[in-house]
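Interim report, section 4.2 (structural modelling).
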Amino acid sequence: MKLFDIVIVGGGGAGLYAAMEAMKTNPGLNIAVISKVYPNRSHTSAAQGGANAALANTAKDDSVELHIFDTIKGSDYLADQDAVEVLCSEAPKIIRELENMGTPWSRLDDRTIAQRPFGGAGRPRCCYCADKTGHTILQTLYEQCLRKGVQFFNEYFALDLALDGSRSKGLVAMNIKTGRIEPFHARTVVFATGGYAKMYWNRSSNAAGNTGDGQAIAYRAGIPLKDMEFVQFHPTGLRKSGLLVTEGARGEGGYLVNALGERFMSRYAPEKMELGPRDLVSRSLETEILEGRGFDSPAGKYLHLDLRHLGADLIKSRLPQIREMCMYFEGVDPIDDPIPVRPTAHYSMGGIDTDNFGRTVMDGVYAAGECGCVSVHGANRLGGNSLLDILVFGRIAGRAAAEEAGSFDPAPITEAEIAGKEQELRSYMKPSGHYERYGTLREELGQTLGQNVGIYREASKIEKGIEEIAALKERFTHVRVFDTSDIYNTNLIQVLELRNMLDLAETVAAGALAREESRGSHTRTDFPVRDDGNWHRHTTFTLEAGRPKLGFKPVTMGRYELQERTY
Amino acid sequence: MTDSTVQHNEDKRDVTFRVHRFNPQVDSKPYHDDYTIKIEKGITVLRALNYIKEHVDPSLTLRAFCQAGICGSCAMRINNMSKLACTTQVWDELDKAREPGVIKVDPLRNLPLIKDLVVEMDPLVGKMEHYSNWIDSKMPEEQWGKKEFLVSEEEFVKYDKATDCILCASCVSECTILRANREYVSPAVLLKSYRMNVDTRDASHDLRLAELVKDHGVWDCTHCYRCQESCVKHIPIMDAIHGIREDAIERRGVKDTSGARHAEAFMDDIARKGKLVEATLPIRTNGVGWTLKNLLPMAVKMVIKRRTPPPPPLVKASKGIEKFREEFREMSGHVAKDHEKKSGE
Ligand SMILES: Cc1cc2nc3c(=O)[nH]c(=O)nc-3n(C[C@H](O)[C@H](O)[C@H](O)COP(=O)(O)OP(=O)(O)OC[C@H]3O[C@@H](n4cnc5c(N)ncnc54)[C@H](O)[C@@H]3O)c2cc1C
Ligand code: SF4
Ligand code: SF4
Ligand code: FES
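Predicted structure of the assembly:
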């Protein structure tokens, strides 16, 4: 029986930092990283903007204090203040650490790391590598893990935790290249599987695999999830793919225009117009669409982001990336035509409930990164704080797991357990009279979430959403995997991911229905104001009898009193 | 596709995707399947393939993740050129199709085939490890996080572009040498090695270089430029390859390796013997333009190093050679000046 001290599930920024730190903490440990894609493919690579840290290189008067305050205010006071303190005070160190191991940060004239302004931050404190920050951070971490000789199990799909009474003895995973189900005996397991915003499917900026696998696995094993109703939307996703058109396009003077030809932001933010805060602009676009002033298309209703008046020269020189994206992904050249956009699900604030060391309620199980919820983002994440979160808490969880791996000897994962899993997966391949296609269910899940548990929420719609999700879950029992081969069965993988999304969608909807207030990314038209008396608390979700059971947790306060969130 | 109920009359075309299929469990050899679907303007090859997978043939196997051209998963050969399926518009490919209306889709070459459009990436990772494709920081690990290295703009631009690489392996698939020798280091790994070697924060330059000049290393490259032409991020990979070669000659001396000896023979012709013997010149195989661009800067540097600035008279002057000679003189001047400046520091 092969036994690992630590098995890290996920090779994004959080997982790789955890692996590196664990090896540093105790080089004698046997550590494995398993990842369903090669680590350098992880979604961390998509982050363009940057990572926040009060280095005070650009603005000399910046401080950790200010960063803490901005984060707490940005979270609409739902973040735990002690966790935010950890996040922000570790930030300068972790950015420098990445620098020391080779991240190509953009530089200022004085040769120090450059920083730029970012939404919701009082000072320019976002450290960046041009528009490829996440990509270069991920590359650096992957390189360093290779240097340290971390054991990688690439293209392994984690299926479920294996339990030994009330604690974990490891997990079972499928080797995608062979189709074999393999046991991973582990003293500790760290989940770092990224976010779940892909459940909004075509209305999401996320990678195809951001399906919340780790959260779903933990949830099925009885570990509580937290604050799942908080999903952040970005105002300008491309109509067909949901991919982001970054804020730069509006920064340079792009107009948002509805089907009547109006620059509709004048209705919602007459002064700031297109440059209002992210959530406000998202809500404005959604209102235009709901009130029938959007354009129609089979891919859904949309609005125009018009850059044409900026002229070909400016577009080519200042927005070349955005132009390229529009041409690649939408087939539209913004010099000649307006860009079709609509708000897109972007980031999941909720996740596996952990303490400030990444520990979950189950002994030996940790979580970090977008898949965990410490919580540092509360009801709304600030741009540039997520990369920071995965680095800081990835490292902390790696260290904690290394220190706590101890000498616990898990019972073996039995042949019967493996066989049971195999049978379960094979059952999807059985021919039957009536069957469902996973592609259809997946699209419908995205649609119902977008319509009923999207930017604007109200009881009747969410209830409809809950019913539709339940119906989809029922139909899922008839889903059929047509590819019956063992080797590289992506048909099977995508079905398993859909199952995870369906499980989690229930918690998102349940949280959205329960939370009768509007806070951060969660907007209830029937409860339009923040209600601190009843709702200044976290929601938790535990699987009971096949349904999410709702619970609550207090928010840890500190130096900062509740205030209204105005900008 | 999904947009079968298009209201605003967007143009649509019937497109046949001729897709490479191979499932090692049942097929004795690869074959192609044709899938014909209606496609409107603005659809990427990846979306079309996903549509086929979801609605026509779920067993069709490919890799894709970000759908945004940043993760590097979806590289494949489309109409005989390696590129990212997610950034390639179907209609653009129709213009390039050899058979009207038919787009060929094949897996990357030079890596072991797993299934349909999926190839094994482990050999590439293995090479990254072999050539230490990481920064070995000059700062001891215990010191990390305390202070920044200071990096000037000049130092930074040397590796900036190279860090765009998303390890998609398109260049690997197009490399001519890899076609003949899979052990060859690979363009992407050369690029990454170069990126590490020019980074002022790195301490393993010599070690990496020592590995790069061995068999299957930097000297095996034929300068065919295919890698650079196919790079999905438009990275000047050849600059990196030249950079490593020049560096190798400068640091390790001209007698070091077979490749360097090749360059040396070339230099000897023009510099020491004072003439150009066409037979030993790469001009013969690669043309004048190529030689000027590729071997000349290196040869000039070698000449300068030995401090025997040569006027290169020619045995027989062909048209191209005349131009070559002029360029050589001019470039010798530049390099010599640079060299003086540097050694004067
Ligand atoms: C378009 C976009 C732009 C963004 N820009 C910014 C920005 O500018 N600044 C910022 O701070 N944040 C940004 N974010 C958010 C940020 O990028 C993510 O929150 C963060 O990268 C998540 O990192 P992670 O390590 O938690 O997960 P990921 O990077 O998503 O990694 C998850 C890992 O888990 C593995 N995995 C998942 N499921 C399984 C399974 N079942 N079995 C095995 N392995 C599995 C995957 O293979 C992957 O390696 C952006 C997000 C998006 C979508
Ligand atoms: S130039 Fe060299 S590395 Fe590039 S494709 Fe040709 S042989 Fe390969
Ligand atoms: S060098 Fe270019 S083509 Fe080659 S792997 Fe990197 S990005 Fe892809
Ligand atoms: S899917 Fe990521 S590059 Fe194409």
